[in-house]
Structures are given as structure tokens and as C-alpha cells.
Amino acid sequence: DAGVIQSPRHEVTEMGQEVTLRCKPISGHDYLFWYRQTMMRGLELLIYFNNNVPIDDSGMPEDRFSAKMPNASFSTLKIQPSEPRDSAVYFCASSFNYGTANSPLHFGNGTRLTVT
Amino acid sequence: AQSVTQLDSHVSVSEGTPVLLRCNYSSSYSPSLFWYVQHPNKGLQLLLKYTSAATLVKGINGFEAEFKKSETSFHLTKPSAHMSDAAEYFCVSGNTPLVFGKGTRLSVIA
Known about the structure:
The structure holds 2 protein chains of 2 kinds.
Chain A: E1 5-7, E2 10-13, E3 19-24, E4 31-38, E5 42-50, E6 53-56, E7 65-71, E8 74-79, E9 88-95, E10 106-107, E11 111-115
Parallel strand pairs in A: 2-11
Antiparallel strand pairs in A: 1-3, 3-8, 4-5, 4-9, 5-6, 7-8, 9-10, 9-11
Chain B: E1 3-6, E2 10-14, E3 19-21, E4 23-26, E5 33-38, E6 44-50, E7 56-58, E8 64-68, E9 73-78, E10 87-93, E11 99-100, E12 104-109
Parallel strand pairs in B: 2-12
Antiparallel strand pairs in B: 1-4, 3-9, 5-6, 5-10, 7-8, 8-9, 10-11, 10-12
């Protein structure tokens, strides 16, 4: 089991540029989550999917953020245009049968985004 | 709404001494609770989980936590700290959606 795989590990971009973060969940997991972590706000849930369908995107900060899950093994989080306040570590996590007591999240190592 | 409160943002202990990281939960019913650990530049890793089967839960790396309904607490403990325990620890309420505490940074002094 390779775990949740995120790419890139680090991304540095200029304000106004488009940024795409990628995630490959653990095979067989039916839930996928995108989180953002900052010193000020801690861990924030942005959006999550069940069987590739977005279930709750109320945490997405604004229209500049979008997420897709075209199939069970791949998801993207896109920011267009990026702004300095988007600088954070973005985590992807997956789970099987989320919502039950035996369904912890498995996290990737994150993408550290810096927008200058 | 559910919430978890981690009472200390930073805890510092000497190597070989006990660790206590405090967490209180707010729930109208018995929740599922987790502790996660995050080492620098890494994702979060599950330490242990409470699922109502037993009030004392043992996790990885010698950590354990006790669910106390009367105190609405789920404190994380370890008898003897190791340098490798230095990390950020999150108490999490396991319902939809997951509710994360603000985290407690554990420092271990040699």
C-alpha cells in the first residue's frame, strides 16, 4: 500500500498564476478529502468526495478554488488565479466507509504552496 | 455542533518523563474520537481511535488515551517521552465532517 500520494511536494508561484495540486488516494477508498493547513486557521476542510461525487464544498474559500475527481484514483485542486493568502500546506486524505467508527483518514504528505 | 478543544497549544517535557496532552470534546452523544500525530513536513498519521468498545485505548508508539464521559475528556498519555515523539498532535472528533482540534505541539528536551 503506497498510501495517499500528492504532487508536487512544493509549489512556488507568482500571484495570478494558475496552480493545480494532485492527489492519488489509496486504492479501494471511496472518500477523498482536501484540507488546507495554516498557522492561523489550523486544518480546514475544503471539500470532500464520495465515489467521485462532491458531497460538501462549503469549505472552499471562493470561486477561485475548484476541485475535481474524474475517477476513483485521481483528484485535483485548482486555484485560479492564485493569491498570496492562498499560501498554505494542502493535504489530501482518503478513507474507506467514512463516517463509521472504524474509518480513519489516511493523509498524504501535503503540498506546500507559496504564492509570491 | 460537535467540537474538540485541545487545552494546551504547546507542551514541553524532558526525555523519559510522562506525556499528557489534553483534549475535551463537546457532543450530545458518545462520539468517535481519534488522535493524530503530524511530524514536520509530513501528513497526519493515526495514533489511536476510540470507538466505544473500551474506554482505555492503546495506540502506536506507546501512546494511549482514556475516554472519560463524566469529564468529556479524551487525554493522550505516554509513560516515557522519546525524542522522536516531538511533533504536533491533533485530537479529532470522528463524525461528518471530522472536527479537528487546533493541535498541541509537543517538544521533548534531551
